[in-house]
Write a structure and sequence with these properties.
Strand content: 5-15%
CATH architecture of the largest domain: Orthogonal Bundle
Number of strands: 6
Radius of gyration: 29 Å
Order of helices and strands: EHHEHEHEEEHHHHHHHH
Shape: elongated
Oligomer: single chain
Helix content: 40-55%
């Protein structure tokens, strides 16, 4: 959640105008403080609260699906906050109190394992490892996302990507890189792959210079290996 700071500032201006009228006939400081204590303070109330996805998920009367993508890129403080969400299905706002879910949401966390998650968080989750797709499934995905790709080019580029994933590189190309590469090759009017074309477009599928250098020297072998795998 967040607080609506702009609305709070406007409320502060109104208070400045009203406080003078509220205490103008108070004879002592104690009387003025007593009147101020009885004044309704809504500065930190639901009127000024802006729900964000976690809180909105808790407040859905019909339930919801809450996706928290790439949790491994968040900080440890956010991970600690999720412990309450995943165990008790509630969010605590210090100024207001606890807001519990009317219907517990279905929560999905994704992680690329760039950071080790805490044991407390993992205990609250069911673990499912999703590996890279096989060549057939990857070709189906690319064909759906890039309808203009020819079958000949599709078979060779998927085979090459599958071969690259077997190399000892730091960042393996994902399906999104395969799709980007297919679109790039179409823009270049390519109908097949040759070593020169592959080397000139490696930066589309590999995002680290060390990986590009590693693969660039093996392009011919990887193309040949991909052809044999395709056959």
């Amino acid at each position: 959640y967040e607080w609506k700071y702009g609305k709070q500032l406007l409320y502060t201006q109104i208070l400045k105008d009203k406080i003078g009228h509220l205490v103008e006939d108070a004879d002592t400081l104690d009387q003025a403080l007593h009147r101020l204590t009885g004044f309704q303070d809504i500065f930190f109330s639901r009127d000024f609260l802006e729900p964000r996805p976690l809180m909105r998920a808790m407040e859905q009367s019909t339930g919801s699906v809450l996706l928290i993508d790439e949790i491994d890129k968040s900080d440890e403080e956010f991970e600690a906050l999720l412990l309450e969400v995943l165990s008790d299905y509630q969010v605590t706002v210090p100024e207001i109190g606890t807001i519990a879910a009317q219907v517990p949401p279905l929560v999905v966390l994704t992680s690329n394992a760039t950071r080790e998650l805490g044991d407390a968080l993992k205990r609250r989750c069911l673990h499912l490892h999703i590996d890279f797709p096989d060549a057939e499934l990857e070709a189906r995905i690319v064909r759906t996302r890039v309808p203009g790709v020819s079958e000949r080019l599709l078979e060779r580029l998927v085979a090459f990507i599958q071969a690259v994933r077997g190399e000892n590189i730091r960042k393996l190309p994902s399906i999104s890189e395969t799709i980007d590469w297919a679109r790039t090759l179409i823009l270049l009017h390519a109908d097949s792959l040759d070593p020169a074309l592959v080397r000139s477009t490696l930066n589309v599928i590999l995002k680290r210079q060390s990986d590009i250098a590693e693969v660039a020297g093996k392009v011919e072998a990887l193309l040949d290996g991909g052809d044999k795998a395709g056959r």
